[in-house]
Amino acid sequence: NAGVTQTPKFQVLKTGQSMTLQCAQDMNHNSMYWYRQDPGMGLRLIYYSASEGTTDKGEVPNGYNVSRLNKREFSLRLESAAPSQTSVYFCASVSHPEAFFGQGTRLTVV
Amino acid sequence: AQTVTQSQPEMSVQEAETVTLSCTYDTSESNYYLFWYKQPPSRQMILVIRQEAYKQQNATENRFSVNFQKAAKSFSLKISDSQLGDTAMYFCAFILTADYGGSQGNLIFGKGTKLSVKP
Q1: pLDDT digit of tens for each residue in chain B (119 aa)?
Q2: In this complex, do A88 and B44 lie within 8 Å of one another by their Cβ atoms?
C-alpha cells in the first residue's frame, strides 16, 4: 500500500517553462488537495478536489491549473513558471478526518 | 472564515525538558477536528496528535499531549521529556466536520513553529 505518491521530488525550471506535478493515491479517497509551503507561511491551499470530476480554488490558485483525471490522480500544472512559484508542493488525500501527504516536491524556478 | 494562528515562530528546549507550543483558531462552527503535525527535515508530514471538538478529554499520545480549551479556541501541544528527534517544524491544523460526517471545507494550517531540541 503506497498511500500518496507524488512525483517528482525535485525540479528546477527556467522562467516561462511549464510542468505538471503528479499525485496519485491508492486509498480510494474522494478528497485530494494541493498545497504549497513557503518559509514562515505554513501550508497554503492551491486547489482541492472534493470528488472525481470536481475541482475548486483554494487560497493561492493564480498561476496554477489542476486536473482530477480519475479518483486516483490529481495533477497540478504550472503553465508558465515564475520565480514566485519556487516552493515546496504537497499533495494530500483526505478521508475525514485523516489526511495523508505525499513526500513533497521541491520546485525551484530560476 | 476559519483561521489558525501559531504565535511562536521558533522555540528551543533542552533535551529531557518539557515544552509547550501554542495554537489558537477561529471558527463559528462547533464540530471540527484539530491536529498537530510534525515536519522533520525530511519534509514528511507526520501526524502527532488529533482532537475532536466534541471530546472534552484532552488527547495524549505517549510524550505528546494537548490542552484543548474550546471556549478560548486554544489548542496547545505539550512535549514531555524532549528528545533530539523532536527537532522539527510543528504545524497546528483544523478541519470542519460536515453534518453528514465528512469534511466541510479544507484542512487549514497555521504558519508553524520551528522547535529545536538542544543536547
Answers
A1: 789 999 999 999 999 999 999 999 999 988 999 999 999 999 999 999 999 999 989 999 999 999 999 999 999 999 999 999 999 999 999 998 877 777 777 899 999 999 999 99
A2: no
